[in-house]
Amino acid sequence: MNLSYRLERRLDTDPRRATLARIGGALAAMVVAAIVLAATGRNPLSILADALDAIFGSQRGIEGVALRAIPILMCATGVALSLRMRIWNIGSDGQFLVGALAAVGVGIHWDGPGWLVLIVMGIVATAAGAVWMAIPALARAYWNVNEIITTLLLNFVAVQLVAWAALSFWRDEKAQVVQSTPPVGTTLAKIPGLDSLSIAVVVPFVLAGALWWLFRSTTLGFEIDTIGGNRRAATFAGMNVRQRMVIVMLVTGAIAGLGGMLQLSAPGAQRLNTGFSAQYGLSGFIVATLAGGSFIGLVFGGFFIAAMFYAGLVLQTKGLSVYIIFALYGIILLGIALGEVASRYRVVRASGTGQLTDVGAVT
Fold first, then answer.
1. What is the pLDDT of residue 174?
2. At 91, phi and psi to the nearest 5?
3. What pLDDT band is residue 177 in, cutting at 50, 70 and 90?
4. Which of 123, 210, 270, 338 sits 20 to 30 Å CA-CA off 49?
5. What distance in Å separates the CA atoms of residue 83 and residue 229, rounded to the nearest whole number?
6. Where is 206: in which H helix or E strand?
7. Mean pLDDT, residues 214-220 taken together
8. 356-361 and 345-350 beta bridge pairing
9. Which residue(s) pair with 348 in the sheet?
10. Spatial distance between the Cα atoms of 190 and 186, rounded to a whole number of angstroms
11. Model confidence pLDDT, tens digit, residues 17-35
12. Cβ distance 49 to 226 under 8 Å?
C-alpha cells in the first residue's frame, strides 16, 4: 500500500493549540538565537541570565518593562479590534503621535486644575486619534480604498507634524540641548509604593477586558466578527457593514490617540519631540497580529515585547551590539509567527485507497 503525506489547512484552529504553537515557536527561536550567539563567541546562558536579572532582579526593571508595555498595549488593543473585522490598521503610530500632539497642546497652554487638565487632555487625544483615522475609514467603507496604504502614509504626516511642533511653533526656547515642546504642567498619579509607574498601566487592562466582553457577550461583537468573516453574508443578513466599519476604525484610532496622551503624561516623559514614539505602533501591530485577535493574548504579548526591549537596553550597556539585539528580536518574533502559522495546518496521510488519516499538527 502506497502512503503519502501532505499538509492540510484546518477549518478551525483551537486557541489552546495556537497558544502552545506560539510558545513552542518562541522556544525554538531562542535555541536558534543561542546558537547564533555561541557562533559569534558569546555565552548565550550568561546573556540570558543578564536579561532575566535586568527584568526581574529589581523593582526598577519590573517598572521599566511595565512603562514600555503601556503604549505598546494601547496600540495593540486598537489594532486587534480592527483585525477582528479584517481591517489592517498600519497607522497606529501616527494616531498615537497625533493624540500626544493634541494632548500637549492642552497641557502646555492651560493652567487649570491638574485633574481637569488630564481629563481634557485624554478627551482631545482620543478625539484626535479618531479624527486622524476618519479619512482611511471613510475611504475604506465607501470607496474601497485599501486602508493599509492610507493608514501607513498618514504615519509620515503625523511624524512631520510632531517635528514641526517640537522645532517650531511649540518649541521650548528654554531647552538648549533637546529640541522639544515645553513639558506639560501635570502628570498622572503614581501607583503607591512605586517609583515611576502611574495609574496609566490600568487602562490597557480595562480596555482589553471590555473588548473581550464585547466580543463574547454582545450583538455588536458578533456583528463585527461576522463582517470580518464574510461581508457579503453580513450585508445579506441586514447588517450595516459600512457604518460598523467606520465605527470600528474610528475607535481603533481613538484608542491609539489615548495611548499618546498616557505616554505624554507619564512621570519623566511630559515633553513631545521627534523621538517620542519608539515605534510603539509597529510593536503594537506585531503584538496584535501574533495574538491572533485574542485580547487576553495580546496583554501577555505586549509585556513580552516590552521585556525584550528593556532587556535589550540593559544588554547594550554590557557591550552587546544593538545590531545583534535587533537580530535576536527578529529571530524570536519570526519563531512565534511560524508557530502561529503552523498551528493552522495538520499533516494528513493518504493511503492508496484515497482515505486521509490525521497524523497530528505540524507543530
1. 79
2. -105, 20
3. low
4. 338
5. 11
6. helix 202-217
7. 94
8. antiparallel
9. 6, 358
10. 12
11. 888 888 899 899 999 999 9
12. no
CA dist., res. 52 & res. 337, Å (int): 23
121, containing H or E segment: helix 114-143
- The whole-angstrom separation of Cα 324 and Cα 319 is 11
* Cα–Cα nearest to 98, from 240, 243, 295, 254: 254
Closest CA relative to residue 100, chosen from 253, 250, 264:
264
Query: What is the identity of the amino acid at 340?
Result: E
Which three three-digit cell numbers place residue 270?
Answer: 511630559
Q: What secondary structure, in 3-state letters, does 252-285 show?
A: HHHHHHHHHHHHHCCCCCCCCCCCCCCCHHHHHH
Looking at residue 329, its amino acid is Y
The per-residue DSSP string of 189-245 comes to PBPTT-SS-BGGGHHHHHHHHHHHHHHHH-HHHHHHHHHHH-HHHHHHTT--HHHHH
Alpha carbon 94 to its chain centroid, in Å, reads 13
How long, in residues, is the chain? Answer: 363
Q: What cell was used for 157?
A: 504626516
DSSP 198: B
User: Mean pLDDT throughout 149-165?
Assistant: 95
Say how many C-beta atoms besides its own lie within 10 A of residue 327's C-beta.
Answer: 15
Sign of dihedral through CA atoms 330, 332, 337, 338? positive
Strand partners of residue 350: 4, 356
Name the band, by pLDDT with cuts 50, 70 and 90, for residue 62.
very high
Query: Based on C-alpha coordinates, what's the Rg of the chain?
Result: 23
Average pLDDT over residues 8-21: 77
Average pLDDT, the chain: 89
pTM above 0.85, yes or no: yes
- Do the beta carbons of residue 213 and residue 280 sit within 8 Å? no
Average pLDDT over residues 52-68: 91
362 pLDDT higher than 60: no
Contact 85, 252 (CB under 8 A): no
CA of 197: how far to CAs of 65, 95, 238, in Å?
10, 23, 47
Q: β-strands 4-9, 345-350: how paired?
A: antiparallel
Question: Is the separation of the CB atoms in 64 and 310 below 8 Å?
Answer: yes
pLDDT greater at residue 14 or residue 329: 329
Q: What is the DSSP letter of 145?
A: -
- Residue 363's pLDDT is 44
- Contact between 129 and 155 under an 8 Å Cβ cutoff? The reply is no
